[in-house]
Amino acid sequence: MANDPTQGAAMDCGELERSVDAWLDGEFDARERAEVEAHVAACPPCRGLAGDRDAARAALRAKLREAMAVRAPAALRARIQGEIAVRRLPLWRRALSPIPIATAAACAAGVLVVLASHGGGEGLVDEAVRKHHRGLPLEVTAASVGEGSIPEWFAGKLDFHPSPPRFRADGVRVVGARLSHIRELPAAYIRYELPRGQAGLFIVDDPGGKFGAEGREVRVGPSVVRLVASRGYNVAIWRQDEIVYSLVSDLDEQALRDLVRAAQGQ
Predict the structure, then answer these.
(1) In the 8-state DSSP scheme, what is residue 192?
(2) Which of 142, 186, 231, 250 could disulfide-link 174, Cβ–Cβ 3.0 to 4.6 Å?
(3) What is the pTM of this model?
């Protein structure tokens, strides 16, 4: 296993190109920011890419501000300026603000924004989708240890024992796994190959109930599953006691429900 190329690989140029916007948006945690900054510091092409992308984003923001200054009614401009000030406040003061941030932002941009309904688990879906989309190298592959040994690989690496469901649909197979985290909680991540595309399953021990109701509730087999669409992916979330499962997929909603239903029936 010491020579397995999937272990301990640093960020490469392709990964930086896929994730540069998320980095510039401040979506990465401290460890991921360090990976990006180390790569950018050592790679002139990626440093140029990041600089160009940042400049383009700044120019776009300037154009939006200019358009709003010319066309927006005075009352709306005042409301947006107030919302910008709210964004700069500490989190506890933002929570007391009477102006919904998403509403003001949508008005400012003049863009229709479709939001999934969020509860106490806000951020679970976005972070799971972002981490799956990054396609970080796997630490162990099914080809090297066998598909059935993937759960045992996590033994001693996490404070809980992840028990992934068995997806028995045709064309679904385990590719491999790695350690991950959602917010501050350690997580198991297992990647699957689908007939079209891939899926990533995050398993998190959540005894404190940090991740609450999120998405649209549907009954899938014996369990209540919540479905959310985010950034081009469909995500299914369900809970078994203290364990939360979040399956990020390229499947359409019906195919995702069928896949989860088959696993829930095992």
Answers:
(1) E
(2) 142
(3) 0.56
